[in-house]
Every structure is written in C-alpha cells, then in structure tokens.
C-alpha cells in the first residue's frame, strides 16, 4: 500500500502555463495531477495510453471529436488511447487527478538512434 501525497491537489502553474506533475509510477499505471488556470488553454496532444481524469476542483468543458461536455468537481472522464481531447472554457481553476494505463509515455515509440 502507498499513499500518493498531493495527487489531484490544485497548485498554481508557474509562469501562467499548465502544469503536469506525475506523483506515482509503476509499469502498468501512472498517476499525476494536471492543473489549468481559469482562462488557460489546454494544448495537450493525444496520448498513447488510456486515461482517466477525475476533476478535483474547478469547471471547464472537455471536447473530443465525438462532442463536448461540461465538467466540474466530481466528474470522471475516460479517454481512450489516441483520442484527441482538450479542456476549454476553463471558468474556474481546474485540477485533475489523472491515471494512465499503462504508465504515461510507456507506449510512445522511441526514435531510432542511428549512432
């Protein structure tokens, strides 16, 4: 058993940018916190892993190719690997507990090193 300190807790991002902090990682799972300030823009790209978001604070809208939905504290969102998604219309500082399966970046192809 392990308590994951700070996961899902709002922290103001530095320099007005969004902030991703990974708090836990094993090969098949990673957990972290993604924060977007009110009025901020989400510029993430699709991930190679399945993803669960739990909104722990704030309000926004999530947009995918299939539609959009308003989210707020307590909302739980599943985004399959490879699906375009973005949070917009962030009206209150947004804190998201994020779980990736397998661990974030573990399916990302490594570039070939010719040397």
UniProtKB/TrEMBL annotation:
All residue ranges annotated as the Cupin type-2 domain in the record: 34-97
InterPro entries with a match to the protein in the record: Cupin_2, RmlC-like_jellyroll, RmlC_Cupin_sf
Pfam families reported for this sequence: Cupin_2
Domain of life where this protein originates: Bacteria
Protein name, entry field: Cupin type-2 domain-containing protein
Source species of the chain: Rugosimonospora acidiphila
């Amino acid at each position: 058993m392990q308590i994951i300190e700070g996961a899902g807790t709002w922290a103001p991002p530095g320099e007005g940018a969004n902030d991703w902090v990974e708090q836990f990682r094993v090969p098949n799972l990673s957990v972290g916190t993604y924060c977007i300030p009110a009025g901020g823009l989400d510029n993430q790209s699709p991930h190679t892993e399945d993803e669960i978001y739990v909104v722990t604070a704030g309000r926004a809208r999530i947009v995918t190719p299939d539609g959009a939905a308003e989210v707020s504290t307590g909302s739980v969102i599943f985004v399959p690997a490879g699906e375009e998604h973005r949070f917009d219309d962030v009206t209150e500082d947004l804190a998201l507990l994020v779980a990736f399966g397998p661990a974030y970046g573990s399916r990302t192809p490594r570039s070939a090193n010719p040397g």
